Amino acid sequence: MAEAATGLELGHVAALLAAGVVAVPIFRKLGLGSVLGYLAAGVAIGPFGLALFREPQTILHVAEFGVVIFLFIIGLEMRPKRLWGMRKEIFGLGSAQVGLAGLALTLVAMAAGVSAPVAFVGAMGFVMSSTAVIVQMLEERGDLPTPSGQRAVSILLFEDLAIVPLLAIVALLGASMGQSAESTTPLWQSIGLALAALAGVLAVGVYAINPVFRFLARNGGREVMTAAALLVVAGTAWIMDGVGLSMAMGAFLAGVLLSDSTFRHQLEADVEPFRAILLGLFFLSVGMALDIGVVVNDWRIVVAGLAAFMVVKALVIYVVARVFKARHHEAIERAALFAQGGEFAFVLYSAAATAGVIDAQAGAALTAIVILSMALTPLTTLAL
Q1: Less CB within 10 Å around the terminal CB: N or C of the chain?
Q2: pLDDT tens per residue, range 69-127
Q3: Alpha helix locations (H) across 115-221?
Q4: Contact 57/8 with Cβ under 8 angstroms?
Q5: DSSP letters along 62-94, please?
């Protein structure tokens, strides 16, 4: 086999598309769903399969692109009025599930001998269920518009919002543990820059988005409007990344800002056709990121952590659902759907590793647990 190139070339794009085209129909024919098909295809063409992609950096770029664009689409659909109407489910049901599940998983990890900071980071990363996996599965089953589907979306929205304070907590943990580099910007300055960037982005969104897009609608074309929307996404994500926040949060914020634009429907129509393929690329990149070497070498830790986290999280989710008056079947379904980690875990674990809260070995094991849980979700929901 020829040595893999050092970038994302046309051959790599063809390999990504071919892997999805071959694997997804087979897995859907077997009743396993497209998500598992994409994940399996990613493993097959990744560093531990055919090795068509050998550079971790290349995989990271693909994953970031998928997450950023996907969260922009989610934000574009979340108008403030809709968010306000879902406030009880988002902040009541969502906070109860995230808080209690995070506490339970942290205690389980500490009982296994893991230090408190690592246990907290590992648990809270796993609590953030995969928005991409759950929404995709709800869409395929036609459950997204139903009341139970909307409650699931509410929980996912709270989890998406929760990543912001979690990233701040990770930074505080790193500073308190003395793991930050000497050249690192002081914490108060980082917080100030982040708040200033958020205020600036919100001000531009409120006062400049509509005038700019009105000008482009009169003097440009549809392709210019689409390019402008993507510029807003890339620019906001870049600003958020520059002040120490996640690019994913920046993309979501860009979508929310554009959701109030009078051109929202046109922008949504332009971007929506790309949604499925972008999600597919994200799932492929997640499959490629699975480190088979870590799974083989630390299989006892990975298997035990996977089983404990998924079982405990499912039990907590079922109890919370019943407390909030959900029927038994809906509670079981929600527990099966949400008993997994998600894409935000990669953001949180990466930030924790950078801050010195977790080491590389722990980060690799936690990442493997999350990816395997995402791959198991389509199987755990087969009987529902």
Answers
A1: N
A2: 767 777 777 666 666 666 777 777 888 888 899 999 999 999 988 888 888 988 998 99
A3: 116-127, 131-141, 147-176, 187-207, 209-219
A4: no
A5: HHHHHHHHHHHHHHHH--HHHHHHTHHIIIIIH
